[in-house]
Amino acid sequence: MDAAAPDAAGAPLELLILAGGLSHERDVSLRSGRRVAEALRALGMSVSVRDVDAGLLSYLESARPDVVWPILHGATGEDGSIRDLLELVGVPYVGTDSAGSRIAWSKPVSKTLMARAGAYTPEFASLPQSLFREVGAQAVLDIVLERLALPLVVKPAKGGSALGVSVVTDAKELPRAMVTCFSYGENALLERVIVGTELAVSVVDVGEGPVALPAVEISTDGAYDYDARYNPGRTEYFAPARLTPQAERAAADLAVLAHRTLGLSHLSRTDMIVDADDVPWFLEVNVAPGMTETSLLPQAAQAGAQPLGDLYRSIVAAARLTQRD
Amino acid sequence: MNERSQQAPVEPTPTVAAAAAAAAFAPAAPSAAAAPTTAGGTTPARGTRLDPWLGNYADRTHGMKASEIRALFAVANRPEVVSLAGGMPFLAGLPLDNIADLTQRLLTERGAVALQYGSGQGEEALREQILEVMSLEGIQAHSDDVVVTTGSQQALDLVTRIFIDPGDVVVAEAPSYVGALGVFRAYQADVVHVDMDDAGLIPEALEETLTRLSAEGRRVKLLYTVPNFHNPAGVTLSLERRPRIVEIAKRHGVLVLEDNPYGLLGFDGDPLPALHSYDPEAVVYLGSFSKTFAPGYRVGWAVAPHAVRERLVLASESAILCPSMMSQLSVSTYLSTCDWRGQVKSFREVYRERRDAMLAALAEHMPAATWTVPAGGFYTWVTLPAGLDAQAMLPRAVTGLVAYVPGTAFYADGQGQDHMRLSFCYPTPERIQEGVRRLATVVNDEYELVRMFGTGAATQVVRGTQAPSPNQA
């Protein structure tokens, strides 16, 4: 099917991209939204880009877009709430429904479900700031250091773009990493570091079942932090990744497993580490993966032969026909 | 870090991978659902760093990049957020109808001139009017000594361009205007900060620093200073110190770069004499219409000793050919036909009211912090309770719907974690009150966290720009 083609009533398809929002990742979202809009406009699709604000509901009411694509990173864009709202409004939208989003948004919950589904995921503890207050910060840190052991990754239990993330190799750095993390949110995830190849595997489902795109390997000088993600230079990407055939298959399988297990739709991106034994370890999954010039899903798609715009158009077309429960 | 990447590459078969990837999301490939993996065994020879020109950039562009902190300011313009971060002037008070009329007349009567190239130095008539504006601060100059620029920011760039070789020292106040630090960094200057107190730059500290740098064999080229209503510190150089600062710099062979965008926006009494007025041969003075009229015209200027001015004009021509004629003639017409003095007075009153609102709110909500009391301008400089790190706290503030600029943005050497700059120029007094109230909650929560974990402020390596962009509130 062709998403830019007129619908049954003869009108061209109208896509509304939601970008911006009130989150720490607003800037990335705005850039992602513009990139997707450009790619689709080049194919002749009628695309509007809009922020989430007090005028949104009345706009949806009057403009009546055929499909909404929420390219909102962080907070309401990924925690399921905007999708709940779109379901209440009754407009077709791109991506995972609210239930799947809620699960994917919480790293501890998605890691737990993936472990139950048989995937490897690094050992972790999920600790809210309130618990440190109740039990005593030093006592909690001591047991974390004793049982989880260094090196550790400390990150907000919810959120993306590596905001608030620290890699702790020295016990003295742990308190500061906790402060940094809690500045972004109430819950911290402390996770053992798996040494290996860092991968992002995007999954696309345009109505024929989830399919993994070529894995993108991330090789960073230092941590893959905000600077490494959005300023070209420190990070070298390999797409497809430099993997053995069995590791490549295992990585693709893990991403598809995440997509299916967590109930995701249309597109997702699973971040993982492949260890020295070719075993991929699940880290987290994104229901609104970044779509900027330096983002991973577009790179994965470009590692294939089909232009990005075609992929996005197929996704929009699939979303239009998706029946939500 | 990556053992696998060091293995010998497997025979590359990129075409297989590309074909498989294409099939992977093509709706016409039903087999994809049955076999949800990509083709295996591919090993490209090289990765990508996503910028083919990466190896070609000049050394001086190091540091010109996005940062986590800057990205957080993206929310500043949302109406839910009270931004005490930006430096946008309050323009709602401008007589826009009059300005629209004069613009129309300008285009109708002198359009062919207004839309044409002009001289590199700037319009003669405007330079004459600039002398009149500057006379309020005791500056006596000739219109030949004035170079009109695209905002005083361009003048800052031009002065740095003609004086600074990589490794030369610029002495600047601690803290210092973030936009100047960016220029100095771009020309690979080494910025050395000198302490201030409530009366501005401390002459003894300047003397000591210049003596020390000289003993170390360093080449100090400029003393960069914002004497009035300092950005970000909010303090003003006292009358008594002004001639001393000029004398010390001159004795050490250091040119004073006096940046004075806020000089006419004092809340009490007449403007203090500019540093330039004490020794025009020892000072390059920078002025601007951005705060006294409107920043959208991008009209600023430099006043410089004649030989310096010659080079500034040539440097400006090589950068931009000439400043915008449309902007210059608009500003010139505004100055000659509107009550610009009355307008500046009304701006002053607005900003004084907002300053008062901010200081009252700080006293009410943040008794554990200290702050400077600005006698003009846009900013106050807050010192947080010990142990707090304003940069680490910013995400919490964004969650709490309030924004500020962390102190680290205003130092070239990683200091400033325990400070933040609060601006009172743009939000209304009510919004300022609400913003400070929110900020107090953020500070209290962060304080509890920092106490719980026993961390203090630490010098951090900061990558990229940490200040909002010019159009962020």
From TrEMBL, chain A:
Keywords (A to Z) from UniProt: ATP-binding, Cell shape, Cell wall biogenesis/degradation, Cytoplasm, Ligase, Nucleotide-binding, Peptidoglycan synthesis
Protein encoded by which gene: ddl
Family recorded in the similarity comment: Belongs to the D-alanine--D-alanine ligase family.
Chief location category: cytoplasm
Record-level Gene Ontology MF annotations: D-alanine-D-alanine ligase activity
Catalytic function, reaction form: 2 D-alanine + ATP = D-alanyl-D-alanine + ADP + phosphate + H(+)
Protein name: D-alanine--D-alanine ligase
Compartments it resides in: Cytoplasm
Keyword Cytoplasm assigned: yes
Pathway(s) of this molecule: Cell wall biogenesis; peptidoglycan biosynthesis
Role summary: Cell wall formation.
Entry EC no(s): 6.3.2.4
Organism in which the protein naturally occurs: Occultella gossypii
TrEMBL record, chain B:
Entry keywords, A to Z: Aminotransferase, Pyridoxal phosphate, Signal, Transferase
Region (Disordered): 33-52
Aminotransferase class I/classII large domain location: 88-439
Cofactor: pyridoxal 5'-phosphate
Compositional bias per record (Low complexity), positions renumbered to this chain: 33-45
GO function terms (MF aspect): transaminase activity
Signal peptide: 1-34
Keyword Signal assigned: yes
UniProt KW Hydrolase keyword: no
SUPFAM superfamilies: PLP-dependent transferases (SSF53383)
Name of the molecule in the record: PLP-dependent aminotransferase family protein
Protein species of origin: Occultella gossypii
